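Example for tutorial group B:
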């Protein structure tokens, strides 16, 4: 309930004319400064850094799985033992996280440009002011959890919808689940 109230506060904090008027499609220095302030308060970059650290092991697993199927596997010699595979996974994960972190300034600049171009100065000022309030600070801190929960819920609904769609398609086409009619 508190999360819904926080989201509602954002809606009522933004002046109606600012919400109704999208960004100009161009970025000004003041918009870029405001956008950077909003991103800092949203802790967006810190969260991206955290996510990159969590993606490292996923990246490593993906690379190792793909490499294992390749005839010219560049990691073949390291993958012969469990210890070698574990070490390779650790190094791949660390290197991915390091490489991703090295691109954070580029990502930050891209996010700033996106916010500064797509949101009006009035929008950015209102969002920035909201984030300075206790409710705004709390919302920013909870935003990551909200996004993760929303993503998880969406994936769950998507998986159920996909299974239903496959079953319905098979029924409509009169195809049995094994491929026979």
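The residue assignment follows.
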């Amino acid at each position: 309930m508190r999360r819904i109230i926080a989201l509602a506060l954002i809606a009522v904090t933004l002046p109606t004319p600012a919400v109704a008027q999208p960004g100009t499609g161009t970025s000004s220095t003041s918009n870029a400064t405001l956008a950077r302030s909003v991103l800092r308060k949203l802790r967006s970059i810190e969260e991206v850094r955290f996510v990159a650290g969590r993606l490292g092991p996923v990246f490593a697993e993906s690379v190792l799985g793909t490499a294992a199927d390749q005839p010219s596997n560049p990691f073949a010699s390291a993958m012969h033992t469990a210890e070698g595979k574990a070490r390779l996974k650790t190094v791949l994960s660390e290197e991915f996280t390091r490489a991703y972190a090295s691109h954070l300034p580029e990502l930050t600049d891209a996010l700033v440009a996106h916010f500064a171009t797509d949101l009006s100065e009035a929008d950015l000022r209102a969002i920035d002011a909201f984030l300075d309030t206790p409710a705004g600070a709390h919302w920013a801190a909870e935003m990551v959890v909200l996004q993760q929960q929303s993503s998880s819920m969406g994936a769950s609904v998507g998986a159920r919808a996909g299974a239903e769609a496959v079953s319905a398609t098979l029924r409509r086409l009169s195809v049995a689940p094994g491929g026979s009619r």
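Residues 1-22 have pLDDT under 50 and may be disordered. Compare this with the pattern of hydrophobic and polar residues in the output above.
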